Each structure stands twice: as C-alpha cells, then as structure tokens.
C-alpha cells in the first residue's frame, strides 16, 4: 500500500551501528529507521555526521531502550504510534549538540552530564538487573554521598569558577526514565539548556530537588541555576567521565555548542 522497501540490519556489538553508518553507500537509503535506545540513536547520528560526505538521511525513531529519553519529547513511546510519522512522511528538523573533547568531535541530541549526573549514570548501568528503578536507586546513593567537584564553567564565553554537584547540558526536556530535567527545552530552538547545582545544598534539599524532576518543578528552586545558552565549556580541576546521551564515555574538559536544525527526523 505504501510502497516502502525495507532492509533490516542487526547490530552485534557496541559501536556497530556507528561503524555501519560511516561506511554505508549514500545512494542506498533515503531513510534510516532506528529501533533502539538513546545509546543506539547516539551511534546513528555520529555515524552520519562524522562521514566525509554530505549524506543526510531522514531518521525514524522507534522505542527500543529502557529510558527512551529523547522519544519522550516526541511522544513516541508506543511502537505502533511511532510508525505514524514515518508512514505519513511527516518530517522535522532538529538541533544537534556538537561536542569537542578527548581531541575529537562527536555529537549528541539528548544530554551531556558531569558530576553527580554522570555518577548516577555509571552506577545505574551496574544496576541494570534492578530494572527501571535503577535510576532512582543510584540517585539515592549519590544524594547520600553529596560529592562535589571544583570546575571552571564557561557560558557564552563568560567564565565562572565554583564547586558543583551537578552540571547538565540538554537539547531536549527529558532524561533517564522520563524525568523533565530541562522543562523549557525545545529540540529545534537553536539553544542548549544548562542546569547547574552548586555545593550549597544539603542532602535533604537535594533529595527534594530530585523528587521534583518528574514534573520539572525543580527549576523553581533557589539552589538550581537554569539558563538557555549557545555554548558551554566544562573544565574541572580533576578530569572525569561524562554522561553522553545516557552512556558513560569520554572525559573532561569538554566544549559543547549547538548546530541548529542539523538533522531531519520523522515526527
């Protein structure tokens, strides 16, 4: 009925999707449909944007992960519903975050997290056997630790040097299992949404803040700095791993900028 020809490619190991897209012949497919989680989507966009040519297929996104953070923004959490914009050829251009770290350039569409948010992501990976509740459990553990980092943050070329518990740079609203970390974010506004929590909050206040992530009301707190920016750099006293689109990888320092409406998706 719709005259759509489909080839299926199964990934076999981490990084396989990216490798496949990097070497794919550009005249084969006009669309790439992704069935996977946020990590798989990240591999796909890096496989496309790190190519030497200008190949830019339209991306269809189907939920296949634990969190499906990016698909929360698109309201495409049901597989059958997620097929609708693909079948009906409804397209939209979205922003992409360009990341410069570890002497290379990569891309993300969901989150870059440093400090507590990376700690939580790293621990939640080890707690996969717990199921979706692993994010809550990991968060509780790091609330009790209350570990902070000294860092210089450069926001729109203005420097700030403080102790931080939590730094996130977001392209969309949701992260984790549907938490509204950046409730004012839009995936096509040409802006990054930056959240900072400094080392001036108690464990009790931090626990209260985390409980408000589900509805986004945490941004009303005096302990939270929330702003929309064009670029941000994170340069801590001690370099550590990052949470990039839900995967723990790379190390600081990192520079993040926005590429407005860089990708085309079905939505």
Features:
alpha+beta; eleven-stranded antiparallel β-sheet; 37% strand; 7 helices; 15 strands; two-stranded parallel sheet; 267 residues
What does this structure look like?
This protein has 267 residues and is an alpha+beta fold. The chain contains seven helices and 15 strands. It has helices at residues 16-23, 38-49, 69-74, 79-87, 116-126, 134-145, 203-211, and strands at residues 31-36, 58-63, 91-101, 104-108, 111-115, 149-155, 158-170, 174-175, 179-180, 192-198, 224-229, 231-236, 241-244, 247-251, 254-266. The strands form three sheets. Strands 3, 4, 5, 6, 7, 10, 11, 12, 13, 14 and 15 form an eleven-stranded antiparallel sheet that branches. A hairpin with a 3-residue loop joins β8 and β9. α5 (116-126) crosses α6 (134-145).
Write down how many β-strands occur, each being a DSSP E stretch of 2 or more residues.
15
Quaternary structure of the protein: single chain
Taking pLDDT < 50 over at least 5 consecutive residues as the criterion, the unreliable ranges are: none
How large a portion of the residues is in β-strands, by DSSP E? 35-45%
Give the rounded overall mean pLDDT. 93
Class by alpha and beta content: alpha+beta
| SSE order | HEHEHHEEEHHEEEEEHEEEEE
Which helices and strands, and how do they pair?
Elements: H1 16-23, E1 31-36, H2 38-49, E2 58-63, H3 69-74, H4 79-87, E3 91-101, E4 104-108, E5 111-115, H5 116-126, H6 134-145, E6 149-155, E7 158-170, E8 174-175, E9 179-180, E10 192-198, H7 203-211, E11 224-229, E12 231-236, E13 241-244, E14 247-251, E15 254-266
Parallel strand pairs: 1-2
Antiparallel strand pairs: 3-4, 3-15, 5-7, 5-13, 6-7, 6-12, 7-10, 8-9, 10-11, 12-15, 13-14
């Amino acid at each position: 009925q719709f005259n759509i020809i489909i080839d299926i490619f199964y990934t076999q190991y981490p990084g396989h999707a990216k490798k496949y897209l990097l070497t794919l012949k550009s005249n084969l497919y006009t669309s790439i449909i992704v069935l996977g989680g946020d990590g798989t989507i990240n591999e796909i966009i890096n496989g496309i944007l790190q190519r030497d040519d200008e190949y830019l297929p339209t991306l269809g996104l189907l939920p296949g992960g634990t969190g499906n953070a990016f698909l929360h923004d698109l309201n495409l959490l049901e597989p059958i519903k997620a097929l609708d914009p693909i079948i009906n050829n409804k397209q939209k251009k979205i922003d992409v975050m360009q990341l410069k770290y570890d002497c290379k350039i990569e891309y993300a569409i969901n989150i870059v997290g440093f400090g507590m948010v990376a700690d939580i992501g790293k621990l939640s990976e080890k707690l996969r056997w717990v199921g979706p509740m692993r994010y809550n459990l990991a968060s509780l553990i790091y609330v009790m630790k209350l570990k902070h980092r000294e860092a210089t943050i450069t926001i729109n070329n203005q420097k700030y040097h403080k102790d931080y518990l939590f730094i996130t740079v977001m392209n969309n609203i949701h992260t984790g299992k549907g938490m509204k970390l950046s409730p004012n974010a839009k995936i096509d506004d040409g802006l990054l949404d930056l959240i900072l929590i400094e080392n001036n909050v108690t464990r009790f206040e931090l626990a209260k803040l985390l409980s408000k992530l589900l509805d986004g009301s945490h941004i009303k707190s005096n302990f939270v700095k929330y702003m929309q920016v064009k670029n941000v750099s994170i340069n801590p006293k001690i370099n550590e791993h990052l949470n990039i689109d839900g995967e723990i990888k790379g190390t600081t320092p990192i520079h993040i900028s926005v590429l407005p409406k860089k990708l085309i998706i079905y939505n």
